[in-house]
Amino acid sequence: MARLPFIHIRSSKFPAMPGEEEELVNEGLYGKAISIYLNEGLAAKGYQMPGYVCEDWGWWVGVKQGDFSSGVCVYSIRQDKDVQEYCACLQDAPGRRWSWTKFRRIDFTEDVTKLDADLREIFTKDPEIEVVGFPKDLPSPEDDNFQ
Question: Which domain of life is it from (predicted)?
């Protein structure tokens, strides 16, 4: 099954945090504040949240619920003083994947689509966050159609 689209957001709510610069693997890939926000928001929806970490491409927020474990990938698109833009997407696409604990392929479509819906709800219900869109590809400030 195809990957679900990115969730492109704009907000002044998630600036670079003090000391975050030292945690970055690659310069400018901020996202600790939004990772903490998602960690708290998804925990409030009943997910187990094993943590978040800075990667070389952005930030990864771990998510677990029952046999399902995955992550939310957070990409920093633009960091200005007054506004920041991020894209978030799920680590996994809907469909079947191998489960080492069950030693067989399990269909996690329902879990992935629920996590995506919960993620969208967290963003859309927050009045301080503008959901720009749901692009299939990661937008870039260099793109002609970048907003």
Answer: Bacteria
Sole residue written with tokens 């191998």: 98
Helix ranges, the chain (H): 32-44, 109-124
Say if 29 falls within a structural domain.
yes
Residue 64: which of 75, 51, 54 has the closest Cα?
Answer: 51
Of 65, 64, 61, 68, residue with least CA distance to 99:
68
**Would 140 be classed as within a structural domain?**
no
pLDDT in tens, 7-30: 999 999 999 999 998 988 888 899
Per-residue CA distances from 29 to 23, 34, 82 (Å): 10, 12, 17
Give the CATH number of the domain where residue 109 resides. 3.30.310
Tokens linked to 38: 């998602």
> Which DSSP state fits 52?
E
CB under 8 Å to 85, separation ≥6 — which residues?
8, 9, 10, 76, 77, 78, 132
Residue 144 lies in a domain: no
Residue 147, domain member (yes or no):
no
